[in-house]
Amino acid sequence: MPRLRHLPQWKMKSKQKSEGSVGLYTYPVLQAADILLYKSTHIPVGEDQVQHLELAQDLARIFNNHYGEFFPEPRALLSTMRKVKSLRDPAVKMSKSDPQKLATISLTDSPDDIVLKIRRAVTDFTSEVTYDPDARPGVSNLVSVHAAVSGLTVEEVVRQAHGIDTAHYKQVVAEAVVQRLDPIRREIQRLKDDRAHLESILARGTLKARELASPVMKEVRQRVGFH
Hints:
227 residues, 60% helix, elongated, Tyrosyl-Transfer RNA Synthetase, aa-tRNA-synth_Ic, mainly alpha, 2 domains, Rossmann fold
């Protein structure tokens, strides 16, 4: 229990809400169960989730020591991509759970929402567009976002932005983000409108997950003596 209290999910979100819930506190245990139930070997995670994955590794190790080798110890697959930072506080990563609505760009945001959020993004008092995450985190974050959605390198983005100020550059970034995300937003909406299709996918997924999980749960019960 003390270990759960020191995991990043609990520390961050309980602080944001000034209180915590049992669901939030035990979330990493449920996460570990989801991983181990399917004998997963490699898990794509962000750096902030590595400690949660380490809990799953430790639980697998403890189970194996007590009941014989059974669960593989899952390994982290870390992305080499740059983190997208909050538009309102570039010292922290962009997060869907951020209470500041202007801080995060969602895949379902309308073009107008995206333009507004990028226009309000925190920058600084220097008008030139440069890339220096330490000295100019806000502008550098916009450069990273622009590079990510356009497929350009950071250096290419900065070169293209030569001679324009940050206010104009925000418009350029917003247009690039809208161009990249709007087709995704429309496809998400199309799928949401086809409820029968979504329910059929969920039903098939449930059956497949049950097929994989049932023999694992059966052997776990046998090994620990829950017949």
